[in-house]
């Protein structure tokens, strides 16, 4: 069974995602039948989970199949993101306490804003891959329980207030490429844009590299703000939902951090169970997928020339 949603959200799904309420269950069953016929996929066959991908692919059955295949393939090829996701593991607890990925409050039928901040502590104390792991855990919670997240899309708000040269040196190009590929090609998300504030002088070199891995339509949705035009940000993301200690008038970063730490911890059993859903490339009919095929980048930002 799938969840009931409000009339307003259903109307949005019909208009923007081509959702046909009468045919919806038939589409879900067609995808479930296809998944059962793929010997290399051990997939979550829950109605709601399949519906997430149908919505994210605007009910194109072919695109839904491709995205589901990629989703479970990523879970096998990227153990650094998808293995050992017990929220009480020390490395995950450390990142949850730092509050680096914090969804903000939102109104229904409006995009979900994800507030991303740099570690206020020495970035070398945490692995960037673990930061991505926790971020994807939070994204998975939205897939599990929030229809608006899929239907209305997402906005990123990235704050570089804590930026130091060590944050730059800590970034790993291979992990960045894997994360970008995963988010863009495996998840049924609808990214509406990414907004950057308090960026350092070297930021343009980073963003120019990242843009090479993103679809052109998303590159056009990247916005960078300075003190002179910060008010333009509030036309898209209201100041009232931005944390008060980050330039807005919403709840504090600590309040958000405590809430999401508890929320992620409450999903412990689900994360442990979810690990079994993945792809087994040895059973795939046809060409096997490999990490080098999908990502093909090594190195770090240490190799960039920073003025």
TrEMBL record:
Transmembrane segments: none annotated. One of its GO terms (cellular component) is membrane. GO terms for molecular function: phosphatidylinositol bisphosphate binding. Signal peptide: none annotated. Residues 89-254 form the CRAL-TRIO domain. InterPro entries: CRAL-TRIO_dom (IPR001251), CRAL-TRIO_dom_sf (IPR036865), CRAL/TRIO_N_dom (IPR011074), CRAL/TRIO_N_dom_sf (IPR036273). PANTHER family: ALPHA-TOCOPHEROL TRANSFER PROTEIN-RELATED, RETINOL-BINDING PROTEIN PINTA. This is CRAL-TRIO domain-containing protein. It comes from Aquatica leii.
